[in-house]
Batch of 4 targets.
Target 1
Amino acid sequence: MPFNPNFAIEVIWPAANAAYAIMSDPQPALPANYTLVGPIEAVTREAAPLMLQAHPNQLRLAHEMLAESPIFGLVAWNAVEKTALVALRGTKTIWEWIDDVDAVPVPYQAVPGAGLVHMGFQIVYQHMRANIARLLTAGCAGAQRMLITGHSLGAATALLAGVDLGTNGPLEVRPELHTLAGPRVGTPDFALFLNGLVPVCYRVVNVMDVVPHVPLPPLYEHAGQEEMVQGGFKPLDVTYAHHLTTYLIGLQKLAPAQHVTGVGV
């Protein structure tokens, strides 16, 4: 399946945007024909065993996410196309990743044998893992397709969700991953496992965005296929190239007839 910028503009970007908006709006704007199944609420007790194993620095991302909101994203359903949609958010700052470039990877506990992953990302995902499965079971029965997306840290947890839901998930369908501004998540063995499991995995990357460059190789390696966009950057503002709205600009340059409005991060 070739990368489709129109699909990214019409479905993926609005879904990623809604994952942020749902923190303050219980009925965020969703892609056409999608209805909200429910918000993905974090449950700290689900992540407690992992957190007990972690170094304090590895807890920073989860603490920052929880400080912003206990809602980490949403699940939606397209009854016409029998498609489940999981959209995961990031945080308002990117500095935690830039400061954590030397993170030592650990085994991915949700899927033994899948390889090593960033512990901070794994802890964030563990907070929402059970509720994602619950929402998919409750609202997406009979799905013939499952999309998983996210921006920034949400892109990192989307990859973890893809491997988990593709192996242990309640829906009998392989997920498709379409992420925006994602960092590296795991070691080469994790990337190899994901690429063998997930048939579609696109990483949209804006030129000059620093987040897709951390954590550093060769310890960490990207999975999936990179799709570069030219959304713009500001020399004196490192975060500008990472903004979700900047990614929309880049996608629209690939498909200029498409227009989507919304408030991004």
Note: The first strand starts at residue 35 and ends at 41.
Target 2
Amino acid sequence: MAVGGLLALVLAGCGGGGRPRPDVFATQDATGGTHPHHQQRPSPAMRRLAAALQSAFGPAGRQSGALVYDLTDHQQLFALRAGMRLPPASVEKLYTTVAALKQFGSGASFHTTVQGVGHLGAKGVWHGSLYLRGDGDPTLGDGVFIKAWDLGNGANVADLVAQLGAAGIRRVTGQVIGDASLFDAAPGGPATNYAPDLPDFGGQLSALTYDHGAAMNRLSPGAFAARQLALLMRAAHIQATAAPTTSKTPDRAHLLATVASPPLSVLLKLMNVPSDDLFAETLTKQMGARFEGRGTIAAGADLIRQVIDTYGLRPTILDGSGLDRSDRSSPSEVAALLRLIWGTGTGRVLESSLPLVGVNGTTRRIAAGTPSAGQCVGKTGTLNTVTNLAGYCHSRGRRTLAFALFIEGPTNTVAIPLLSRMIEAIQTY
């Protein structure tokens, strides 16, 4: 896929009613201590908030629910069908974010390497082949693409070429071979039975991708990445040809060049602000490969479930992006997670990875042009007839509120103004 065509794709903010579940929301605070809910008489502000949210949820239908919690005063402010399990869509990425931070740490990065089998001879001739070994970095690509797609944050293949030149290599007698063996070969997710899903992913999944999973003709993403490396090498006066298929790097290969991804904290922002499904499933496969021994979405989803279970929460997690409509979670579970991580290192990184509501990313249309714009951060979740939003608000009353708003039934066009009314009500509390 040409870079121009790929940039033209719009990444979908992703993913039936569900059964109510017991409310999981009332036992622990963000530090692990217990804070039973105080059953105080509702204040006038709470009554106004409840009335505004009830009114906004009226057109949303009975397959919608919400929970709003005051993190400052440790009290639940509003709940409506909060235990109902619904498709979270891309709100699922909150679970993926927390699991990745817990497993890798915010400073973790992933390294794409060039490894050689052979030796360097006279006049800069590499007698043997080079392997471009993927480490699951979704930002690997060329500088122009990285600037446009990843806001300048990415691993530039030109840096690998420069290192090969500095090592004295001027010609490769063998081939440049892509190695995507860290993950399985499935280019898509469970929502498409693991077939390619370009409308949602904007590319194909692989442990070795170039320019957001671009592929060409019969070349897989890994083989396409090797081809692009060979082309850049030739542009730098290093003679090289690429193999049309991928292969695992032999154990006897040795390191010649390496380039690192941005730290995980930056990768999460690149994932959450535009709701990038390819980033989400790449991180999910990363967790499966590193901690479950299988670079698959299923293995990564198992690991995400294990992490979220440590918070006493048990949503149905089948992928990392939320595209699978069989994923299930409740507003209560999502709001509980936001409450439990608030004030922790994990919570601070997650909050900083989310777009400002009404300002940027997938939340830019929600409450845009109102006094509430820029006062909340949130993760959207959008599928056909599913329009969700969850995050944090700094309210006019100088309180920090966690919220989870799930709407199923109305079209996205109808639901966005409803979410705008809800955010305004929450932020003005």
Note: The chain has a mean pLDDT of 92.
Target 3
Amino acid sequence: MKLSYKTYQLAFQYLFTISKTSKAHQTIVGVELEHLGIKGYGEAPIISYYPYSLEKIINDIEAKKTQIEKFAFTTPERYWHYLHHLIPDNPFLVCALDIAAWDIYGKMSGKALYKLWNVDYAKSPQTSYTIGLDDIDVMVKKLKQHPWPIYKIKLGTTDDVSIIKELRKHTNAIFRVDANAAWTPSQALSIIKSLQLLGVELVEQPLAKNDWEGMQYLYQHSSIPLFADESCVSENDVIQCASCFHGINIKLTKCSGITPAKRMIENARNHNLKIMIGSMNESTIGTAAAAHLLPLVDYADIDGPLLLKEDVATGLSYNNGYVTVSDKSGLGIERIWRKLQHI
């Protein structure tokens, strides 16, 4: 193995605001692994409310580079287990390397990943398009500028119901709501009753990630399906979520890669949970990794490249909510390390 990396700041089309934070750029660390002349790519986005800073990811790469490179690669699963023990406190970096390993493995096999897994890509769900928090008139403008069959709408303000009421005036599209843990149980129950009347399909992470008592109460009384995001970070969280949520949002970056995500999907099915594959504003590299898993899930929120003005790879296309991956082997992407805002 040979490892190299680059870091970038990719500009958003709009200021991206959720209940926790706002940002104009998405910082990413793009990694390249080379094995027997075959190159694979992965990425780690920097998310301010997770403890995996740019400095930490780079320091861990530099500190562990020799060990990362010396592994005798055979399968991505074996490599993930090695990385998981080598870098136990940095799932974002493990994810980037795991994606790159799967890219290599697919290229070695001569197959796109979804073909390697023998799944029917025609069964993939449509992805939502995210409307970040803003003044209501700006949120309406975003919606009108991006006609889409499904919207994920970020909430977490004192005007949440008013936002949905105003947006609903302008489209009959499916609405999904993401509160990013901003509500209390009593607030959530009241808001959810109004959201149901406005045709909201599901609510993601209504309460604080560790408010399990509140979630059990809400789960028993909610008229809309509830999905875990911050409450379901890794595969160890699936069982607890099964008694408090109707579904889970699996994000490769936070769970540490494709390898554990596939296990989480199987585990969630065993516990009768619905499954969403989500994203954390990744570029086409990380989004392509999630896209190959689409036939295995019920819902999708992998619109990162649509929200960014800049990208570092090609290989995905979007049409009326459907995400198409390239039939090229591995991830099916072409890296374009453009001269963006390289850090």
Note: The CA atoms of residues 67 and 86 lie 8 Å apart.
Target 4
Amino acid sequence: MQFNSATRRAFLVTSGLSVIGIAGCASSSTSAPIQAEPIVEGILPSTSNQALQKLLEGNRRFQSGQAKWPNQTAGRRQALALEQTPWAMVFGCVDSRVPPELVFDQGLGDLLNIRTAGHVIDNAALGSIEIGIVEYGIPLLVVLGHERCGAVSIAIEALDHQKKQEGHIQTLAEYIRPSILKAQGNGDDRHASVVQNNTLYTVNELYSSKIISDAVKASKLTIVGGRYDLDTGAVSIITN
């Protein structure tokens, strides 16, 4: 077969790509397997005080820009593929600025997260928390409200203007309404007051679950309320 210059160039390019493809496959097939990092039970917090201290230490790292981003390697992921041992639960808002693993500088397998707008309680949220108690024996639950919560703003607007929100958003407004009625101040101060009231309201409402209330009575679970500051990154505990 005779090749003209254009055909010859096309042949050489195609051949080169084929060789690269073969080499790439060979390299991929001979790559070293990922080494799983063992889950060391002895270093996991076993009490609510230890768990809370670990969370707050991580939050201080996050605030100062010295986060360690622990337990986020491929090996850690592989080690958790068949089991998990979370040691704290965070019931927080869906707000994209408040991801618990980042806020508390934790990683894969550390936290069991339940998130709804304004941490509004429904049966699914309660059931998810109950799983953390019954299946994993988690000793700490943090209800985490946050500064400038959008769900709170929606609820305030609905009440102030006697406006019914669309669809199931109205459910959020109705849940947060008691916290608005108890709020003090105006403007930003009022909003901050509602956020705090709503966090405490959620903490109290969790006791409607027998599993949760029994776990607290038996000292198997501690529930605390916290507030996240969007400006500083700090989490403050607002319950005793």
Note: The CA atoms of residues 186 and 193 lie 9 Å apart.
